[in-house]
């Protein structure tokens, strides 16, 4: 591809790749020098040139270099567009999901629904790129533009026609997915998270709303969870962007829940939806527990329906949904009838939602093991402690990716909101303690790491899985289970 096909006024030279990381530059690359939160990409321009960069994309600050410099007001945006142009291909139908909690679940459910409808479908996000050909880790929920665009091109070349991706607030704020052409988008919910990065909740909300205000083309469907207390504000943004709202949830106008009847291993949803011939009703036997899972499945169904899928076929597909790895995942049931679950709740609202969902399944007590991530929103810690104390009968506070921070200090911050809790250093030990306490009819919720396969301590990631830690503890404690 030639530089002037992507950048106005640039020379008529072939370039061989594009990156924002000087360490990844190869001969013939464009280097996007971006101002970051830790360093400034402009400090690496010379290093990039030395490695073979033939042009630099950067902001309008002064600077002289021996290769052409393309100066733009918003280099991250132009970088994303250039990556899209360079890789040149994406699945025909792309949708994106934003919200504090439930994105991974929703995109996974939508991939499953599309697959059931006969499409070659993929999902992209925290769980990686998941496609018929297999799964590939991406490292981020919304990875950088080159990772997004190269992955989408691979998927399209493999024949994937439908792809659902997660839009994180970091991703939206940093224009990581501004080169993706979307057919629809969904907003799930907003609650506290990432206030280490966003200056306040308003700023966090504005970042999420870029999906509607900057990414979705006019006239495209905007799926909105009508039960979110942000609904009115989101509708306002959607209308201003000339999108077509499609609201879902208990209070949805287009696809809504009338009644939920919990079953042992699932729940029956009495749903209604709007059609040209009037409202219709159906009962979907969802094979997943927890109201929040029903709401995520409904958002996925709304996305599929809003871009033309047959509602009846979508509802039939919902009856076949499989749980998403590490989301309310049943690890074992002890011989005395206590359930051990792993879940990815890592925000105050997520933990609140999870522990409420656990209650109907506990004849006995709800025991919760959790911690909070280091180098992330510290404000969440005492709040999550308080929530755990309020909704669980017993709380064990432990470690969850302390990263560069002192694990004991993080635990202390959580304990400030949960003075009655037991503090156990080391996650494996804490899980063991949770299992040791289990009696007939209890439920153990191990929250915060879900699908994760590592624990990051002082910058080093050691293999760790809540699922495996629970199974090892059962074996060590000689507890029988199935
Ligand atoms: C806060 C944040 O989002 N940081 C991301 C951001 O880094 P940054 O722009 O601040 O980078 P920086 O380190 O200051 O460096 C500035 C620039 O210099 C470049 N550089 C740096 C060093 C060098 O030798 N050469 C070089 O060219 C860097 O590549 C970068 O372009 O852009 C980088 C490249 O895309 C990301 O890797 C990095 O993610 C960091 C590692 C991270 O932890 N991000 C997390 C918080 C994140 O993005 N999470 C979200 C949300 C999670 C969720 O809620 O689901 C996600 O989507 O995963
Ligand atoms: N709709 C929801 N409302 C509230 N909490 C939810 C909802 N959906 C999921 N959760 C909780 O949040 C956890 C994470 O869910 P999921 O991984 O789907 O969210 P996510 O938005 O992708 O998270 P991340 O920001 O890490 O990518 C779940 O394990 C559950 O505890
Ligand atoms: N995408 C989330 C994941 C948090 C998971 C939790 N285990 C932690 O490490 O804090 C984040 O980066 O905030
Ligand atoms: Mg996710």
UniProtKB/TrEMBL annotation:
Binding residues for UDP-N-acetyl-alpha-D-muramoyl-L-alanyl-D-glutamate: 22, 141-142, 168, 174, 176
Stretches assigned to the Mur ligase central domain: 97-304
Domain Mur ligase C-terminal: 326-450
Residues recorded with modification N6-carboxylysine: 208
Known pathway: Cell wall biogenesis; peptidoglycan biosynthesis
Annotated motif Meso-diaminopimelate recognition motif, positions: 400-403
Role according to the record: Catalyzes the addition of meso-diaminopimelic acid to the nucleotide precursor UDP-N-acetylmuramoyl-L-alanyl-D-glutamate (UMAG) in the biosynthesis of bacterial cell-wall peptidoglycan.
Protein name: UDP-N-acetylmuramoyl-L-alanyl-D-glutamate--2,6-diaminopimelate ligase
Organism: Hirschia litorea
Gene that encodes the chain: murE
